[in-house]
Design goal:
Blueprint lengths: L1 H14 L3 H9 L12 H8 L6 H8 L4 H10 L10 H5 L5 H11 L5 H9 L4 H13 L3 H14 L4 H13 L4 H12 L3 H9 L5
Length: 204
């Protein structure tokens, strides 16, 4: 039954495919094994016809197809997403786009903060990016603490991570853990931290 549904979904994707978008993504280094180039808002609308269905989402997520993997993030039931299954979900994070889409699912998971803690402790920049985005969308006390520790430990961030960190710190600068990170950033002579400090906006 799930296979038949996936074939149905693939048919609907073909009707909405955009080769020009897929080509532009590839030209900018966003590569997938197969990419229909369907717009995110269209994928979200399509997902409503199948959600919530975590088993079906898992089937879609396993496919090497950009549009199916994104659909999976909006079809899965967040309550079913457990840290015990984190290896399954991390395998699909091959691009910044997938990190962004999966973070929306993880932010609603009961284990959201555990994903943040574990993935910020890795050396994988895409997992770190996904974890930071998850914190930006669900800033639990545990996630904010893990983010603060990450700032102090790493000292070096790519531009995507830097922008998300600036957003988190600007919004939650009164949190005890974030306050400590902010003090550390502003007292550091590290170039990367100085760049991050310039991105932070706090309306005093």
């Amino acid at each position: 039954m799930s296979t038949a549904k996936m074939i149905e979904v693939l048919g609907r994707l073909r009707k909405n495919m955009n080769g020009e978008v897929a080509g532009r993504m590839s030209a900018h280094g966003v590569d997938y094994a197969l990419n229909y180039g369907v717009a995110i808002h269209t994928l979200k609308e399509l997902a409503r016809d199948y959600a919530p269905d975590t088993n079906f989402a898992r089937l879609l997520y396993q496919q090497q197809v950009r549009d199916l993997q994104i659909l999976a993030c909006y079809i899965a039931n967040p309550n079913d997403i457990s840290i015990s299954d984190e290896e399954f979900w991390q395998q699909g994070i091959s691009t910044g786009e997938m990190a962004e889409q999966l973070s929306s699912l993880l932010a609603k998971s009961p284990d959201s903060a555990l994903f943040v803690q574990k993935w910020l402790a890795t050396d994988n920049p895409l997992l770190q990016y996904c974890a930071l985005l998850t914190t930006a969308k669900n800033a639990s006390a545990t996630a904010l603490q893990a983010t603060s520790e990450y700032v102090v430990r790493r000292n070096d961030f790519d531009i995507q991570q830097q922008r998300v960190l600036a957003t988190i710190i600007s919004k939650h600068h009164q949190d005890t853990h974030i306050t400590q990170a902010l003090q550390y950033i502003r007292s550091s002579a590290c170039g990367s931290l100085q760049q991050l400090n310039e991105e932070i906006f706090i309306d005093d």
